[in-house]
């Protein structure tokens, strides 16, 4: 079961499951149709094994029903927001699922840290990123139309080119390779920030 960008770790697992011919079903919940990362790809990969639930349309995964339906020996993998993961695990334990059949991962939250200034080269604007906000949130708050999709450091849609930074980038995403992170010329503003006083980006 996946919630939001919690779908990311399943993408590689699904290819393996298909290759090995294992039985599985994937239940994927997301906030709205325009935030359904990988939806088309999943339809192709999983066919009728994938089920979509759109929060905005009042659709919810029925954990109890799904857990009851599974044959003995099944395993549950869940990745998503804390509340979703915790409630599924609690329910499964109460229903007697063994601990070793339950696998979970909670997804990335934006890092908080010291405030800094982002200078937008193309828009010729400066935005202060406060300590409690992600860089993406600060840009949005300033009325900048910054791209995004997952808001969890996984899809790469929000990538910005870093033209200059007088400190150190703090990469929190799972999208950039180690080499790209070391090169310090790209950043995922949805989860990453910097330990600096000023960063210049190509936006
Ligand atoms: S919005 Fe997906 S990595 Fe930032």
From TrEMBL:
Keywords: Monooxygenase, Oxidoreductase. One of its GO terms (molecular function) is monooxygenase activity. InterPro entries: 2Fe-2S_ferredoxin-like_sf, 2Fe-2S_ferredoxin-type, Benzoxazolinone_Detox_Enz, Beta-grasp_dom_sf, FNR_nucleotide-bd, OxRdtase_FAD/NAD-bd. Its EC number is 1.5.1.-. Residues 116-203 form the 2Fe-2S ferredoxin-type domain. It comes from the Bacteria. It is an enzyme of class 1 (oxidoreductase). This is Toluene-4-sulfonate monooxygenase system reductase subunit TsaB1. It comes from Methylophaga muralis.
């Amino acid at each position: 079961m996946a919630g939001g960008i919690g779908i990311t770790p399943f993408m590689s697992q699904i290819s393996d499951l298909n290759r090995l011919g294992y039985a599985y079903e994937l239940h994927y919940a997301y906030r709205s149709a325009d935030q359904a990362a990988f939806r088309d790809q999943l339809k192709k990969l999983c066919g009728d094994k994938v089920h979509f639930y759109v929060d905005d349309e009042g659709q919810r995964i029925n954990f109890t029903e799904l857990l009851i339906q599974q044959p003995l020996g099944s395993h549950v993998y869940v990745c998503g927001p804390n509340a979703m993961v915790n409630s599924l695990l609690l329910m499964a334990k109460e229903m007697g699922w063994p601990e070793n059949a339950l696998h979970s991962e909670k997804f990335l939250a934006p890092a908080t840290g010291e405030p800094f200034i982002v200078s937008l080269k193309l828009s010729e604007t400066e935005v202060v990123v406060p300590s409690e906000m992600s860089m993406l949130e600060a840009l949005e708050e300033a009325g900048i139309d910054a791209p995004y999709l997952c808001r969890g450091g996984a899809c790469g849609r929000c990538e910005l080119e870093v033209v200059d930074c007088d400190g150190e980038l703090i990469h929190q995403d799972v999208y950039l390779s180690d080499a790209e992170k070391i090169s310090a010329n790209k950043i995922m503003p949805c989860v990453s920030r910097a330990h600096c006083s000023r960063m210049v980006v190509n936006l």
